Amino acid sequence: MNLIVAADANWGIGRDNKLLASIPTDMKYFREHTLGKVVVMGRRTLESMPGSKALPKRINYVLSSNPDFEAEGCRVVHGEYELFDELSQFDPDDVYLIGGGSLYNRFYKYCDKLYVTKIDAVLDADTFITNFDEDEDFEVISESEPVTENGLTFRFVVYKKKKEGIDRSKTLRF
Ligand SMILES: NC(=O)c1ccc[n+]([C@@H]2O[C@H](COP(=O)([O-])OP(=O)(O)OC[C@H]3O[C@@H](n4cnc5c(N)ncnc54)[C@H](OP(=O)(O)O)[C@@H]3O)[C@@H](O)[C@H]2O)c1
Questions:
Q1: Is the CB of 5 under 6 A from ligand 1?
Q2: What is the sign, positive or negative, of the torsion defined by CA atoms of 162, 167, 173, 174?
Q3: Which residue from 97, 156, 158, 162 has the least number of CB within 10 angstroms?
């Protein structure tokens, strides 16, 4: 499984159930990675999307503890066991964890690659994720040149899980 996120300099990712910034180049990067793939999100992230709609041309999984929750175009799962059971039918490289904070923090350890758009600013977030630079199980394998758009400078950074010397409980592919 992969993870894709845009985070500010404090690893903030959202406020009032919205993204912190609109960055068209980052949206393009997100689309390029996820089109035709499987995306996994929390119920709040689905509701943060325009019209609370599933992302087109992708298989959308939404996690909610509410047994009555339904969302058009989405496959709703109600717990981690059910989620991983469902995801086991796909190639892990084709699965992207797309938010929000609760899912990133709970599941990033199970991801092989973390695609992080690092925004070089502090943006008044109310939702934060783990600082991946401080997790010794991951290393940076690529980092783009800085790009500036809409007054924000950002870089595309890719982390990969180290294969050796890590806790075996964290090596599950999902
Ligand atoms: N910067 C980015 O790249 C990015 C990407 C995505 C989202 N975001 C931001 O992240 C924020 C939302 O994050 P969030 O943490 O508040 O919400 P979230 O992770 O999107 O969704 C949380 C919800 O998911 C369900 N859930 C989570 N873990 C579960 C589990 N183990 N079993 C069953 N259900 C579970 C629960 O739904 P129920 O309450 O229905 O049980 C929970 O309330 C927003 O500001 C959004 O804009 C940012």
A1: yes
A2: negative
A3: 162
